[in-house]
Amino acid sequence: MLKTPLAAALLLGLASAAQADTHQISMLDMGETGHMVFEPAYLHVQPGDTVVFVPTDPGHNVASLEGLIPENADLIESAIMGEPMPVTFTEEGIYALECTPHFGMGMVAVIQVGDSKDNLETVADGIRKMRGLPKQRFTALLEQVE
Ligand SMILES: [Cu+2]
């Protein structure tokens, strides 16, 4: 009795694991798009996909901005500054991310997971309250949301 559902669950797990993609975002002192950047700074991924944040230059991290990720999503924060940080995104929606030491220099990124735009207005509101380069770059990134 137990064997079949378990086998099915395992197969389903394998199937979804096989479909999940891994993406990479570099964290750079100087990239093609400017100083202190995530490249790419906007990425549209599917639920279950993993994004590996790679501090190609040292001294960068990745963290989610309070209230600017989907309601049920786990907070994101690099365990160790300067170490690659894999994040598996399961909750659909828009994620606003920063490099904590370089937020003021506009080192920000937007990840869109799946097709839900339920929290798009919340994120847009949060960005409207910012100033300077973070606001400028976030605004441009949010325009890329599909
Ligand atoms: Cu940084």
| CATH homologous superfamily descriptor | Cupredoxins -  blue copper proteins
- The amount of beta strand, in percent, is 25-35%
Can you give the mean pLDDT?
Answer: 91
Shape verdict? globular
List descriptors.
146 residues, alpha/beta, Immunoglobulin-like, four-stranded mixed β-sheet, 3 helices, 25% helix, 29% strand, binds copper (II) ion, periplasm, copper ion binding, Copper_blue_Plastocyanin, signal
What does this structure look like?
The mean pLDDT is 91. 25% of the residues lie in helices and 29% in strands. The chain has helices spanning 3-19, 120-128, 132-142; strands spanning 22-31, 34-39, 42-45, 50-54, 63-64, 85-88, 93-98, 108-113. 32% of the residues are buried. By secondary structure, it is an alpha/beta fold. It has 3 helices and 8 strands, in the order H-E-E-E-E-E-E-E-E-H-H. The chain has one domain (21-142): Immunoglobulin-like. The protein binds copper (II) ion. Copper (II) ion (CU) binds next to loops. Copper (II) ion (CU) binds at residues 27, 36, 60, 99, 101-102, 107. Its main location: periplasm. Keywords: Copper, Electron transport, Metal-binding, Periplasm, Signal, Transport. It comes from Rubellimicrobium roseum.
Structure summarized in a few sentences:
This protein has 3 helices and 8 strands. The chain is an alpha/beta fold and 146 residues long.
Blueprint (SSEs and pairs):
Elements: H1 3-19, E1 22-31, E2 34-39, E3 42-45, E4 50-54, E5 63-64, E6 85-88, E7 93-98, E8 108-113, H2 120-128, H3 132-142
Parallel strand pairs: 1-4, 3-8
Antiparallel strand pairs: 1-2, 4-6, 5-7, 7-8
Bound molecules: copper (II) ion.
Copper (II) ion binds at residues 27, 36, 60, 99, 101-102, 107.
Subcellular location: Periplasm
Binding site for Cu cation: 60, 99, 102, 107
Domain Blue (type 1) copper: 30-113
